[in-house]
Amino acid sequence: DAGVIQSPRHEVTEMGQEVTLRCKPISGHDYLFWYRQTMMRGLELLIYFNNNVPIDDSGMPEDRFSAKMPNASFSTLKIQPSEPRDSAVYFCASSFDDLRGGNQPQHFGDGTRLSIL
Amino acid sequence: RKEVEQDPGPFNVPEGATVAFNCTYSNSASQSFFWYRQDCRKEPKLLMSVYSSGNEDGRFTAQLNRASQYISLLIRDSKLSDSATYLCVVNIFTGYSSASKIIFGSGTRLSIRP
Question: How much is the pLDDT for B92?
Answer without folding.
Answer: 80
